[in-house]
Amino acid sequence: MDPLRFVASQLDELSARGLLRMPRTEPESPDRLVLCSNDYLGYAQDPPMPADRTACGGSGASRLISGDSPSHRQLEAQVAEWMHTEAALLFSSGYAANVGVVSSLMGKDDVIISDALNHASIIDGCRLSRAQVKVVPHRDTDAVEDALLQHQGARARLVVTDAYFSMDGHCPDVTRLRELCSRHDAALMVDEAHALGVFGPQGRGVCARQNVSPDILIGTLGKAVGLQGAFVAASQSVCHWLWNRARSFVFSTAPSPWLASALSARIARLAADDAARTRLSTITERFRTTLLQRGAPIGGSEGPIIPWHVGDSEKAVRFSRELSDAGLFVQAIRPPTVAPGTSRLRITLHARLSDAELDHAIACLSRLL
Ligand SMILES: Cc1ncc(COP(=O)(O)O)c(C=O)c1O
């Protein structure tokens, strides 16, 4: 008898509820238009070019053992300068960064105030920290203030939020959050995963756009940067603490020096690429305005993430299949990624789309109406 037989029945149950996800098996058509990646500037297909051509091979160990290299340190100095912080630290992914940062900084005597729609990696970091977690309604800054007032006796308080919510395409009021945190002696952590490269001067994100300095800023390097990894930009002491105590950093092989060096070159390119940001914002405006005029259910978002609200999971999957038949790849997003009854098509645009491709996408999507 299979001791793991419950797995098969759980899969059957997911399938019956229209929630089963499968790796794609059909061959991909080379001219399929991908409109659901996080590759907002269209960099992901470009070959990585390490800034230092001698950086090669794997790191061989964690940074604390023998995995450290000049490429890692150079990248971190560059990120700190770009983000206007004292220091920065490279992690192997955004997931690892959020889990490591939140769980190592916060402990059982602390309180974390976390937006209800924060990314799963922030939620997991909160759980691992053993701190008291106060989940506040999405983008409700009054609720954040109430929670701060309610928990004045905690050793430390951390307010944490995504900068650009990836399933909804909207941003929190980071100006008010900064003001509240400063007034109530709490720390502010902002995850710029989907905002980096897209918003703000030099693509520095939503906080930079609003001229806000969070105490901890997370940036991921697999989305607009188009490679892999993440950074934490913060004070020297916070980064030093993470080096010592963030378990997903300490107990994990360092990203290769080759990747660190390729990231250096890619970040320099992204920071200077206002042309791509302008193109992205121009096509996004045209796409959103045209579809809204036709009555598409895409209201309430800004920037290149454009959720098409469907509600029912099976209908969302059917829409996705119909688009696929027309050569458009738009993934259906279902629970548990989003709340039950709020399934959607998550459309994302990227700066390399031609006008003809954009028109084709608009025409295909209009047929769903
Ligand atoms: C807000 C946010 N933070 C972190 C992550 C995780 O980043 P990574 O894909 O680099 O692990 C994601 C990825 O989807 C995200 O949306």
Would you kindly provide a written description of the structure presented here, covering whatever features stand out?
With 369 residues, the chain is α/β, with parallel strands linked by helices. The chain folds into 2 domains: 24-41 and 274-366, Aspartate Aminotransferase, domain 1 (Alpha-Beta Complex); 63-272, Aspartate Aminotransferase, domain 2. The protein contains 14 helices and 12 strands. It has a 7-stranded mixed beta sheet, sandwiched between helices. It has a 3-stranded antiparallel beta sheet with strand order 9-12-11. The radius of gyration is 21 Å and the shape is globular. The mean pLDDT is 96.
Uncertain regions: pLDDT < 50 for 5+ in a row?
A: none
Q: Architecture of the largest domain in CATH?
A: 3-Layer(aba) Sandwich
Helix content: 40-55%
β-strand amount? 5-15%
User: What is the CATH top level name of the largest domain?
Assistant: Alpha Beta
The SS-based structural class is alpha/beta
- Gyration radius (Cα, Å) is 21 Å
Present as ligands are:
pyridoxal-5'-phosphate
Average residue-wise pLDDT: 96
Number of helices: 14
- Main β-sheet: number of strands, strand sense, barrel status? 7 strands, mixed
Helix and strand arrangement:
Elements: H1 5-16, E1 33-34, H2 63-67, H3 70-83, E2 87-91, H4 94-105, E3 111-115, H5 120-129, E4 132-136, H6 141-150, E5 157-162, H7 174-183, E6 187-191, H8 206-209, E7 216-220, E8 230-234, H9 236-245, H10 247-250, H11 257-272, H12 274-293, E9 305-311, H13 313-325, E10 328-329, E11 332-333, E12 343-348, H14 355-366
Bound molecules: pyridoxal-5'-phosphate.
The site of pyridoxal-5'-phosphate has 14 residues, from α4.
